[in-house]
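User:
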Amino acid sequence: MEAVASAGSRGFTWGRRHTLTLLMMLAAAVGYSDRVNMSVAAVAMQQHFEWSQTMKGAVMAAFFVGYMGFMLVGGVLAARYGGRRVLGYAVLWWSVWTQLTPLSAHVSLEALIGARIAIGAGEALLFPAVYEMASRWAPRDEYTRLTSITASGIPLGTVIGLLGTGWLLTRFDWPSAFYVFGVVGLVWCVVWFAFARDRPDLDPHLSPQERELLIREAEPARTEQDGSWRELLKYRATWALFAAHFANTWTLYVLLSWLPSYLREVQHLSIGAAGIWSAGPWMSMFLMMYAGAAFSEWVIRRTASVAAARKLVQAIGLLGSGALLLSVQALPLSPAIVLTVLCAATGLLGLGWSGFSANYLDIAPRHSAMLFAVGNTFGTIPGIVGVTITGWLIDVTGTYTAAFALAAGISVTSTLAFAVFGSGRPLLQAEPAVR
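Assistant: Predicted structure:
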């Protein structure tokens, strides 16, 4: 049993680590706003520059070239130079390139693609740096809370990026979206560098109580382990975690890319209504990430088992989301009920985030930044392959049923793997690896 102390047992007092968590959540929101604003702005840019659909697709896909290509670099940099500098300079880098996007577009299509690759490369450093900070600033029983709150910036930024860009484009020209979101990122950088420190012992404003807590509970989790992060790749629990991560991002990217099209083509909503209503599921995901953190912590207190909590929320999230997506196509539902089901499906996906996201810290607190970089490299594949296969299935079958069924099948397979092989304790302190 992986018994851990209960956060509730020592009471809650807002501390520096909580402000750091809030800032990291906002960094994720900034990142996803800058990631998805192109999907809205590209409509106006396509008309302005007379792009073909192929050119537009190249611009949209360029982000993932940088994102996937620099993920491992992010893990190495975070482990070597610390989360504060890597995260701060990463946001600075992609915010500057976001502001340079209109200029790049007017120079040439190649320059714009290069700018989007640069933005993706910067955002690849985001979560490895977050995990490096978490490994130093989070007591073991707060792993779920920190990772869930930080990850809630994903749906929040998605909503802000989609609706904010749409609002700006109705009032100003398309470059305004990149200028405004770029400035937001630069403001965040100023606040981050003024507040954040790599380690608790470097923060002069830390209260004595919080300093004692972090020195007693957070730092030992990092220093007890020995060995290289590569040793973690010998464990089945690591690959089960990668599978769970892959399944979550498969459904995430499919919904992110195809939900507005589904509402438009199948539910026959107007383009404007499809864009507005597609924000609903992401707000549901945002709220359910917090519910998932609270539920996970409750399960840990009841069972004294971290593994049980991770596996339970992962199963509920992935299996529930997959089942609801299948029901949308299987049942003759009205648009209002379909939207409700989609909100529930996306919300359950957010609930499951408390399973795999915190598990990186559970099994590898010392090497979580690097291990997450490896896992998220696999987790980015659905952003390219999954979205493309989904489009192909829709073309071939004429419906979304096969695409949703594939997502559900991947969810079931990964849930079984995680349930059987997943672990809730540091692997490098466990028994020798089972190869």
